[in-house]
Amino acid sequence: MISDYFGFAVGNLFHRRLRSWLTIIGIFIGIAAVVALVSLSQGMQDAIGNIFASLGSDRVLITPKGMTGPPGTETTSSRLYVTDLDVVKKTKGVKEAAGYLSRILPAKFGSQTKYPLVAGLPTDAGLSVFTSLGQFATVEGRMLKSGDKYKVIVGYQLAKETGGTFKKPVTIGKSVYINGYKFEVIGIRKPIGSAMFDTQVIIPLETMREITGIQNELSTINAMANAGASPNALADAIKKDLRKSRGLKEGNEDFDAQTSEQLRQLVSSIIGIIQAVIIGIAAISLLVGGIGIMNTMYTAVLERTNEIGIMKAIGAKNSDVLLIFVIESGMLGLVGGLLGVGTGVALSKTVEFVAYLIWQTPLISANFPWWLILGALGFSFSIGTISGIWPAYQASKMQPVKALRYE
Amino acid sequence: MKKNHTVIKLSDVWKIYKMGEINVNALSGLDLDVQHGEFIAIMGPSGSGKSTAMNLVGCLDLPSKGNIWLEDKNIAHMHESSLAQIRGRKIGFVFQKFNLLGTLTALENVMLPMIFQGASAEKRKKRATELLSLVGLGDRINHKPSEMSGGQQQRVAIARALANDPEVILADEPTGNLDSKSGDIIINFLKDLHEKENKTIIVVTHDQNIAEHAEKIYHLRDGKILSIEKGRKHKR
Predict the structure, then answer these.
(1) Residue A143 located in a structural domain
(2) In Å, how far are A193, A327, A332 from A19, measured between CA atoms?
(3) Measured between CB atoms, which of A15, A310, A318 is closest to B80?
(4) Is A161 on the interface with B (CB under 8 A)?
(5) A107 by DSSP, 3-state: which?
(6) A311/B112 Cβ within 8 A
């Protein structure tokens, strides 16, 4: 019986094709927007998760407090020093720790000058703290090694030919002038998927101090936990030791010591807020779409008053009439949802593709978790159904005699 | 089958409509007793209450006062959904305007009353096809009403009225929108149903020629039965 009612619904929607489509568009736009935007922000969240995973799950990152941008662009007056690294190294539970210094510096290649983020990495034993993370692998040439001076490893995005930082590709053996000093390109980093890392250049820390004159300071300290130790507990231990050495009280730290998991959660929660705002805006459009369905169903009920009378005369109960109209309006929602999901998927996949063509970044990618697809379909069907309940109830309550007389 | 049991009985039925301040009596104490297998006609000028009477006999409306028995059930105070079930099973309607659903094919229109009674898809299709063949439309089962003539549409309506094998066929001006030739075909169908299937036929009409086919003609005036006469064209 229910399947017959679905048949009626499809027949009626086809019978009033233009109006059905216009109504469906009202739902379709909202669902397409939700699916496209949520899948992209979900993709971004997953990609950022991967980047933080590449920072190492056993790591604690120590940075000056209030760091709002990439290392080297901080606006706070607090600094980290080599002495802090010594404290961190001595903290119980730390297997190895190292720090790097980074600044934005002019880099001249050919006749062009650009301002990449330059990171000075240690070439002593501390180098392994960084190179043991996958993100420091090279696609060409090699990474820094002990004894290197005035050598540079450039980011993938910075080096590449089309869409790169410079007009000409930066290749192994070429010279780049950083802060006026000549450096030899010895390696090109593999793409990470973040503009920050992919346009970065890496030079030895000692050389960095020579060309900038900045002694003793470090931008970030990276501490590796002993195998099996909890990074969160280690972060607390490091905080405690650093507070002591810097003479600070708890709660007044001028530095942060966070695990990559904590950082990932922070970014996740920011994306979560953005997602909630997007869904909120889309919900308004869906509400409007729902009102569109309600309007269409009212018109349909009025238009088919005579039909309702006939159905009642030949034995349709109130509940049959109610069901017929509710299913019809649910179908309006569901068709809108199906088209919306299809369009949303196509839209976000297009954005992903275009973004990859332009930036080669996996950061803008579309992920479609099952809850998004099923949720969108279920929600659109529910909107249709709920919008149809009141018109359908009105239809079901019609008196057969009056309905039959209606012209 | 014998004719000695009452199918529909109206006793002292009143239908009062409120028109602003005044009460209008559409029916004022109507008594009617329809026996099983009877063919009756209800006649009367407009305003005589014949439409109201037909709505009450067809369980489409409830009386303001009085009782209506359908077989042994008093339907005067029944709930609309129970009435719908009774209508669907016991009464087949044939309307002046055919009242087919325009979005459905002839076959689907005939199957509709069976859907509301919960018949299986297979059974519905079989019976609807048989009924459409019976009314001479076996080759048009997949046509929509808009693709058929008035006479054909009314035959689909008769097939639909028979779908649940009801005891009573209630026809409201069944030939009103038809030319005389198509009208004759419809009347002959109703007569056949009466004679061969022993169905109870109630025709509401203002056309004396149609009424003459009935066994009994009830003349209505001012919401009451004025007179009862025998149909001259009725044989049996």
Answers:
(1) yes
(2) 46, 17, 10
(3) A318
(4) no
(5) strand
(6) yes
Domain of A8 in residue numbering reads as 2-51+265-405
My answer on whether A208 and A80 are in the same domain is yes
Considering the domain architecture, whether residues A71 and A179 belong to the same structural domain is answered as yes
Buried b (16+ CB within 10 A) or exposed e, A189-200: bbbbbbeebbbb
- Flag if B160 and A401 touch (Cβ within 8 Å): no
Total tally of structural domains belonging to chain A: 2
Q: Which long-range contacts (CB under 8 A, 24 or more apart) does B117-122 make?
A: B117/A315, B117/B85, B117/B88, B117/B89, B117/B164, B118/A1, B121/A4
pTM: 0.73
| Whether CATH 3.30.70.20 fits B39-48+80-230 | no
- A291 and A332 both lie in a single domain: yes
- pLDDT score at A71: 54
Find tokens 């001076």 and name the residue. Answer: A149
Tokens of B113: 């009353």
In tens digits, chain B (236 residues) has pLDDT values of: 445 688 999 999 999 988 888 888 889 989 999 999 999 999 988 888 888 898 998 889 889 999 999 878 888 888 888 889 889 999 999 999 999 998 899 999 999 999 999 899 999 999 999 999 999 999 999 999 999 999 999 999 999 999 999 999 999 999 988 898 999 999 999 999 999 989 999 999 888 888 999 999 999 998 889 899 988 877 65
Q: Which of A208, A225, A253 is the last residue of a domain?
A: A253
In single-letter form, the type of residue at position B212 comes to E
Domain boundary pick from A208, A224, A253? A253
